Amino acid sequence: MAETIGFIGLGIMGKPMAHNLLEAGYSLIILNRHQEGSTEFAALSVRAVQHPQDIAAQCQTVITMLPDSPQVEEVIAGPDGILASVHEGLVVIDMSTISPVVTRQLAAQLAEHGAALLD
Fold first, then answer.
1. What are the DSSP calls for 8-65, one per residue?
2. What is the pLDDT of residues 33-65, one digit of tens each?
3. Which contacts of 74-79 are long-range, i.e. CB under 8 A and separated by 24 or more positions?
4. From CA 66, how far away is CA 115, in angstroms rounded?
5. What is the spatial distance between Cα 112 and Cα 16, in angstroms, rounded to a whole number?
6. What residue ranges of the chain have pLDDT lower than 50?
């Protein structure tokens, strides 16, 4: 079985990306701030979690597809964010359009724990 990937943000762009990963044979753990974005994935036996730290604890790769810098900062560095359960070797792939300054700051925070941020 293929690697389990965490996917955060199932909006207009994130939802089709997540479907493509499923079709390619990956299993997913998802998080979406709006329940309706997660509903159709439940029918596909995709597990949803409540906090980004829950995804980070269970995956080696986490993809984010979020609206802007504040949302990415919250998901990574917020109280229940990825940094709360970061582990060495974790790779966070941010597909969001955010500030390069914020990207570098978050990458540095993850690197302190042996994790990587790809933008």
1. E--STTHHHHHHHHHHTT-EEEEE-SSHHHHHHHHTTT-EE-SSHHHHHHH-SEEEE-
2. 877 777 889 889 899 999 999 999 999 999 999
3. 75/8, 76/52, 76/106, 76/109, 76/110, 76/117, 77/106, 77/109, 78/52
4. 20
5. 32
6. 1
